[in-house]
Amino acid sequence: MNKTLWYFLLGFAVLAAAPARSEVAIADVFARHTTSLNGKWHVIVDPYDTGYIDYRGKPYDESPKISGGFALDHHPKDKTELVEYNFDTSTTLKVPGDWNSQDDKLLYYEGSVWYRKKFDVKKPEAGRRLFVYFGAANYEADVYLNGVKLGKHIGGYTPFAYEITSLVRETGNSLVVRVNNVRHPEGVPTTNTDWWNYGGITRDVMLVEEPATFISNFLVRLKPGTTNTIEVRVQLDGAARGNAVTVKFPSLNLSAEMAVDENGVAHGEIEASNLVLWTPEHPTLYNVEIFTSAESVKDRVGFRTITTSGRKVLLNGKPVFLRGICIHEENPRRGGRAWSEDDARMLLGWAKELGCNFVRLAHYPHNEHMARVADEIGIMCWEEVPVYWTIHWTDSSTLANAQKQLSDLIARDQNRASVVVWSVANETPISEARTKFLKTLVDEARSLDGTRLISAAMEVDSEPGNPLHKIVDDPFGQYTDLCSFNEYTGWYDGLPEKIDRISWSIKYDKPVFISEFGADAKQGMHADALTRFSEEYQADVYKRTLPMLEKIPGFSGCTPWILCDFRSPRRLLPEIQDGWNIKGVIGHDGKKKMAFNVLKNFYAEKAAE
Ligand code: GCU
């Protein structure tokens, strides 16, 4: 048998034998031994997926040995070889960053873009492992290293990582990612949304080096039902699990050893009588360090309880009013997806300036910096998965997709004291299939984390023949901790004066939370308060809505729509919207509108109560 055939069969056997690579959980990534791969990446914009499928439409990576396409990052051996792409001579885009705001030609682009990063790295020593980690890529990402497929991640807002220990070489590693942001009816979100479908590798990419057995995730929180007992659960990844994990809280002078069970889990409780509980006013955080025989991981965590009692929301057992605002993950100044710590500080800084102690991070998991900065500066967060409007409720792959996004989000942010609400949906039309779908997500969230409030932006109805009488009896409300809904009287429903005349019937004896209200206003456009799109109209909606809400029994907070104007493909009024949803209280140039001060004054009064 000639040698080439022999190597081919061997290679094939090895590859055929190579297990399908699955995603690896790596939490608290910013506290680990990492090498950033951020920066300029060569890209190929590939509207026909030429790099992914052959002319018969067959994907090149259907079989373990990739048969062609851009994933191979192949260069012609000599002048005769036909190769019709070349990453080296292709243009570049910045990573992290969406492609839409980096190149006007790509503003509306939906399709595939191939990213390629070359890197050298010291091969991990024996007993060490190497991973490549992505903060997010919208919407689906096929990841390859040195011509081998690592995996496919679906969902544009959650992290994913793959092990590359056996594949990496010292020099000239070729990391190739096919990112495709085409919208799908069965997707999560589905095809119709009121936000820009930014595509690309939108968050940090890094190499993460770990020992053979490493701490893949950990949970540090108050033991449910207590304020003086810390519960810790540590998940190890790897064979040699050793026999104990040590957890230390240096500033509390507390430490504990915990045995590791057969599943690589160490679980324990630590009495902590002198804990200062986290609040927005006093966002106390504690250093925690978790040790195994091979490594240690650090984090900063706060301890607080969040519960409800009747129609009250209780933070650390005390009633709290949620003074909030909605935020999209966009940097209005730079344009495009927000992704950095500075972006988070800017957006949350504006929310603080408004007098907020709460924000709704709409409508999908924002980057990890948001909740970490919120921990530090003292703002509670509502986090959400993009189950938005008309999802395919009976499609099991859609449900699995939504469940995965939810569990990935919880795994990433479970240690953030600031995160107090998991939201499983926004404005989804009532049907049995829908409520069943959402109930499954509620059960998922409760089983993964029973210590936070579960919610969604529910539907509002009105009494037949009496549009002034609003009714909230969405059947899904029986499964949530908050009775939250969006309310647009005065904008989508009537004129601002109607706000003064409406009344409410709310079926649930739960805290009432208004997850959206608002009106469009072009920053700098001034007119009488009945002129749509003027700042006066928007301010009037705020001036009338806030006192109206105050009359609702159990009104426990609100997050008006929205902090900043944001790009939306559904907002097309020339010279007014021009592709922007302008319901922000801050314009997309960062300038504040009149409504900003109306809300700020209202929150100042609430805070003084
Ligand atoms: C909806 C929706 C938002 C949207 C807003 C609007 O309620 O939840 O995503 O942008 O209203 O119409 O401006």
- The strand order across the widest sheet is 25-24-23-22-21-31-30-28
What does the oligomeric state look like here? Answer: single chain
Total helical elements: 8
Low-confidence stretches: 3-19
Largest sheet: 8 strands, parallel
Global structural class: alpha+beta
Question: Which descriptor suits the 3D outline?
Answer: globular
Radius of gyration: 25 Å
- Separation, N- and C-terminal Cα atoms: 87 Å
Bound molecules: alpha-D-glucopyranuronic acid
Strand content: 25-35%
Helix content: 10-25%
Report the count of strand segments: 33
Average pLDDT rating: 95
Structural topology:
Blueprint: H1 3-17, E1 34-36, E2 39-46, E3 92-95, E4 112-119, E5 128-134, E6 140-145, E7 148-154, E8 160-163, E9 173-180, E10 205-211, E11 214-222, E12 229-237, E13 244-249, E14 254-259, E15 265-271, E16 286-291, E17 296-301, E18 306-309, E19 312-315, E20 318-319, E21 322-327, H2 341-354, E22 358-361, H3 368-377, E23 380-384, H4 396-413, E24 419-426, H5 432-448, E25 453-457, E26 461-463, E27 466-472, E28 483-486, H6 496-499, E29 503-506, E30 512-516, H7 535-550, E31 555-558, E32 566-567, E33 580-581, H8 594-608
Parallel strand pairs: 21-22, 21-31, 22-23, 23-24, 24-25, 27-29, 28-30, 30-31
Antiparallel strand pairs: 1-10, 2-3, 2-4, 4-9, 5-8, 5-10, 6-7, 6-9, 11-12, 12-15, 13-14, 13-16, 16-17, 18-19, 19-20, 26-27, 32-33
Helix pairs in contact: 2-3, 4-5, 7-8
The structure holds alpha-D-glucopyranuronic acid (GCU).
